[in-house]
Design goal:
Strand content: 25-35%
Distance between the termini: 22 Å
Helix content: 25-40%
Radius of gyration: 16 Å
Length: 155
C-alpha cells in the first residue's frame, strides 16, 4: 500500500485560468497557428508539420480550451507529482481530473501512444491526487490530425 500523505510532495496550488491562457497566448506558435486556422477556414490543420514539443504544447492548449468550455476549473499545467508529470489538472466539483494529452497522427497507433510504464506512473499519480481530493479521475485526451479531441477514461 502506497502512502502519499507523508512523502513531502508539493501541495496543489491554484493557478488562475487567465495565467495559463496568457502563457499560451504569449507564444508566437499559438498566434501563428490561430492565424493559419483563420486564413484556411475549410482546410484541416496538420499536426504532423509541427515539432513534437510544439505539437504537444498546442494539443495541451486545445484540450485546456475544451475542458474550460465544459466548466472544469483549471488548476495546473504540467503539474509534477512524485510519480509522474500531469499535463493538465482540473477540478470538477470535488473531483480532481488529471489529463494526459497525446497527439495522434495515425489511427493505427491510437492505443500505443501511452506505454505500460507511463500508464503505471500516471495511475500512481492519480492515487496521489486521491490523497488530496475525495475523488480523482485520469483521462486520456487524444488530439487528432484535424484538431478534434477524444477523451478516454480507464485507459
Amino acid at each position: 500500500i502506497l502512502n502519499f500523505r507523508n512523502m513531502g510532495s508539493p501541495q496543489i496550488k491554484h493557478t488562475p485560468a487567465s495565467s495559463i491562457d496568457e502563457q499560451f497566448k504569449n507564444l508566437d506558435l499559438v498566434e501563428n497557428i490561430e492565424k493559419h486556422l483563420a486564413a484556411s477556414k475549410n482546410l484541416s490543420w496538420d499536426l504532423k508539420k509541427l515539432s513534437s514539443s510544439d505539437r504537444g504544447l498546442y494539443c495541451e492548449y486545445l484540450v485546456y480550451q475544451k475542458l474550460l468550455k465544459e466548466k472544469f476549473k483549471f488548476i495546473a499545467h504540467r503539474f509534477k507529482t512524485p510519480m509522474a508529470e500531469i499535463d493538465l489538472l482540473f477540478i470538477d466539483g470535488s473531483r480532481a481530473v488529471a489529463v494526459e494529452v497525446k497527439s495522434n497522427t495515425s489511427e493505427a497507433f491510437l492505443f500505443t501512444r501511452v506505454g505500460r510504464r507511463q500508464k503505471t506512473k500516471l495511475h500512481a499519480a492519480r492515487l496521489f491526487l486521491e490523497s488530496q481530493y475525495p475523488e480523482a479521475q485520469l483521462l486520456l485526451a487524444v488530439v487528432s490530425h484535424d484538431a478534434s479531441i477524444e477523451l478516454f477514461e480507464n485507459f
